[in-house]
Structures are given as C-alpha cells and as structure tokens.
Amino acid sequence: MDIVAKDLGNFTNVRTFTDGSERSFEILRTSSMGIGTYKPGWKWSVHAGTQTGKAAENHIGYIISGSFIVKGVRGEEQRVGPGHAFELSPGHDAWVYGNEPCIALDFRCNQQHDCNNHE
Q1: Residues 86 and 65 sit within 8 Å (Cβ to Cβ)
Q2: Contact 31, 49 (CB under 8 A)
Q3: Rounded Cα gap, residues 112 and 10, in angstroms
Q4: 118 in any annotated domain
Q5: Which among 7, 47, 67, 69 is placed 20 to 30 Å from 119, CA to CA?
Q6: In this structure, is residue 1 part of a structural domain?
Q7: What is the pLDDT along the chain (119 residues), one digit of tens a residue?
Q8: Which long-range contacts (CB under 8 A, 24 or more apart) does 17-21 make?
C-alpha cells in the first residue's frame, strides 16, 4: 500500500502509565507516530520502564508544550521544551520539568522495517 493515513484525533492504541500519564500512537506502514501527555512528576524509569520491564529504546520526538529533562547514558542532562526536536540513545531517562504537563510527539521505526534504508 502506497498511502497509509490514520486519524490522530482517534487513536486506537493507548498506554496509560502508573501515574495516569498517557501515550497514544498509530502504527503506519514503516513507522509509528504517537503523542504523549505526561503529568508533572512523570519519569520514564519510574512510570514507564517499571511498567514495561524494558530499558528505554532509541527515541525521536518533538515537544509541543511543557518541558522534559533528558539524561543520556553518559549522565549528561539537557532540558528540552516547546519547539525542540530530540533524539535519545537507548538507555536514556527523561522526566517532566516543572509543574506543567509535557505534551510531546514521538516517532519510531517499526521493527520489521529497515529505517536505515531511505528509498
């Protein structure tokens, strides 16, 4: 199929984290696109990693509102906020900065597709 279109206003896949934050996503042909609303106090290692039992994978995203502090595998930290695009290596951690929810888009390659092949 050459064209895959999904209604991002009506997600079919929703994950609710232990603190009530949510991430919704749609699976496209070669990738997935999602949006998360993360409450103040949300932290990947506490509210997502423990729930999934997995370490953080490579992550590409875009912040719509609010902010995250992201921590790389070597311990470096950076704040990302509205308008920032980011890519994080596997094993990272991230948490909401401040008292405002962080709303972020995220993108990932579907496992069965080679995203390094840009044809």
Answers
A1: no
A2: no
A3: 25
A4: no
A5: 7
A6: no
A7: 688 888 877 878 888 888 999 989 998 888 889 999 999 999 988 877 666 666 667 789 999 999 999 998 899 999 999 999 999 888 888 999 999 999 999 998 876 555 554 44
A8: 17/42, 17/47, 17/48, 17/51, 18/46, 18/47, 18/50, 18/51, 19/47, 21/47, 21/101
Task: Please report where in the chains the tokens 């044809």 appear, as a residue.
Answer: 119
Residue 103 belongs to domain with CATH number: 2.60.120.10
Which amino acid makes up residue 35? I
Q: Within a domain: residue 4?
A: no
Range of the domain at 87: 13-109
5 inside domain: no
